[in-house]
């Protein structure tokens, strides 16, 4: 089965060709226009998707060395995400499916992040059901109990900012460009994670909160730069390492509890923040200590990509869950529908 995946939920336009569980191509066009604004501007994102989508899909098909007629179905991200961005991918998928007279399947972007673990060319082993997946991205922080490809449940989530936002907003406070997450990761590698202490939230059950940390971090920077105007520049590595260490501690505190309560020994991470070196190392450490089998996606399947949409679409296709031509995108698509 050959599936064309289309992802356009935020600021990356991506198209991928998946043959069974193997990726034949996975093209991504990023959008530089947002850099000047320090965050994604929805209207500009939607316009850039319109410019990018045709060449990106075309390149994905060419690089996969397949013909249009080889495609069995089109999978597209229906939501959640920015409405204007989702409309571009959804409309494109609909018209292409109509033109080629092939079925289409809708994908929940967050299911895509989780199911990226089932793409073939990664770790030798794939997770077995049930497993727990910590999904950490730009807009979400979820502890997901994954019972089957299409049967998953969010057992913990953030009540305010997402983990990726905690990285990006903190980076912005330090004057780093958007998105700051990867930069904090980079500077943290040469810093001392115990140089500074930041506040950690008290939340019930498996829920998260990152807004208190953001405020605490802002006050910390204000206090220290009053004493030394070059405080951030002179201590960037230690600040980044300490902040990252705090975010990872917050994430793992709840993750460990969830894994223990559900008595599951297979633990995965997914989403853009799972590209973070500190988070990846921590999962391996905890795995060794606690006898977990751990699953870490390849870098290119952490941040937004269409290969993960195609693999999630594959399972919808196998179940015969087809989308109809009257479908519209849903910016707030629920995790379980
Ligand atoms: P969502 O998936 O919730 O809709 P999104 O699709 O915008 O949000 P992703 O592309 O999955 O988010 O992830 C982007 C986020 O990942 C950004 O917040 C970015 O800073 C963060 N991120 C990417 N790489 C790293 C890294 N190495 N360390 C920390 N954060 C990172
Ligand atoms: Fe995402």
UniProtKB/TrEMBL annotation:
EC number: 2.3.1.234
Primary location class: cytoplasm
Record: residues binding substrate: 135-139, 168, 181, 185, 276
Cellular compartments annotated: Cytoplasm
GO terms for MF: iron ion binding; tRNA N(6)-L-threonylcarbamoyladenine synthase activity
PROSITE patterns recorded: GLYCOPROTEASE
Binding residues for Fe cation: 109, 113, 304
Top-level lineage group: Bacteria
Cofactor annotation remark: Binds 1 Fe(2+) ion per subunit.
Gene Ontology biological process: tRNA threonylcarbamoyladenosine modification
Domain named Gcp-like: residues: 22-310
GO cellular component, one term: cytoplasm
Keywords per UniProt: Acyltransferase, Cytoplasm, Iron, Metal-binding, Transferase, tRNA processing
Enzyme class: transferase
Reaction catalysed by this enzyme: L-threonylcarbamoyladenylate + adenosine(37) in tRNA = N(6)-L-threonylcarbamoyladenosine(37) in tRNA + AMP + H(+)
Cofactor(s) needed by this chain: Fe(2+)
Recorded family membership: Belongs to the KAE1 / TsaD family.
Function per UniProt: Required for the formation of a threonylcarbamoyl group on adenosine at position 37 (t(6)A37) in tRNAs that read codons beginning with adenine. Is involved in the transfer of the threonylcarbamoyl moiety of threonylcarbamoyl-AMP (TC-AMP) to the N6 group of A37, together with TsaE and TsaB. TsaD likely plays a direct catalytic role in this reaction.
Xref: HAMAP family: TsaD
Protein name: tRNA N6-adenosine threonylcarbamoyltransferase
Gene designation: tsaD
């Amino acid at each position: 089965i050959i599936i064309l995946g289309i992802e356009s939920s935020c600021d990356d336009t991506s198209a991928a060709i998946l043959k069974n569980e193997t990726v034949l191509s996975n093209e991504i066009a990023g959008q530089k226009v947002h850099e000047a604004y320090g965050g994604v501007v929805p209207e500009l994102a939607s316009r850039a998707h319109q410019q990018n989508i045709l060449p990106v899909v075309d390149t994905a098909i060419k690089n996969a060395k397949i013909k249009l007629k080889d495609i069995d179905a089109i999978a597209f991200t229906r939501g959640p995400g920015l409405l204007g961005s989702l409309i571009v991918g959804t409309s494109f998928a609909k018209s292409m499916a109509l033109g080629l007279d092939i079925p289409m399947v809708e994908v929940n972007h967050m299911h895509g992040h989780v199911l990226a673990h089932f793409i073939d060319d990664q770790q030798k082993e794939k997770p077995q059901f049930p497993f727990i997946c910590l999904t950490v991205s730009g807009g979400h922080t979820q502890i997901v109990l994954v019972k089957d490809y299409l049967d998953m449940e969010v057992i913990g989530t953030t009540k305010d900012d997402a983990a990726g936002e905690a990285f990006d907003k903190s980076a912005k406070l330090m004057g780093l460009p958007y998105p700051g997450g990867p930069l904090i990761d980079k500077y943290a590698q040469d810093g001392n994670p115990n140089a500074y202490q930041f506040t950690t939230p008290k939340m019930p059950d498996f829920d998260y909160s990152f807004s208190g940390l953001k405020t605490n971090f802002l006050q910390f920077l204000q206090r220290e730069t009053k004493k030394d105007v070059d405080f951030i520049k002179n201590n960037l590595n230690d600040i980044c390492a300490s902040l990252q260490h705090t975010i990872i501690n917050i994430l793992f505190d709840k993750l460990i509890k969830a894994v223990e309560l559900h008595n599951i020994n297979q633990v995965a991470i997914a989403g853009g923040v799972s590209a973070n070196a500190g988070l990846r190392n921590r999962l391996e450490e905890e795995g060794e200590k606690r006898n977990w089998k751990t699953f870490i996606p390849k870098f290119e399947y952490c941040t937004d990509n269409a290969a993960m949409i195609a693999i999630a679409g594959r399972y919808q296709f196998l179940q015969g869950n087809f989308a109809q031509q009257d479908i519209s995108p849903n910016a707030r698509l629920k995790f379980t529908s």
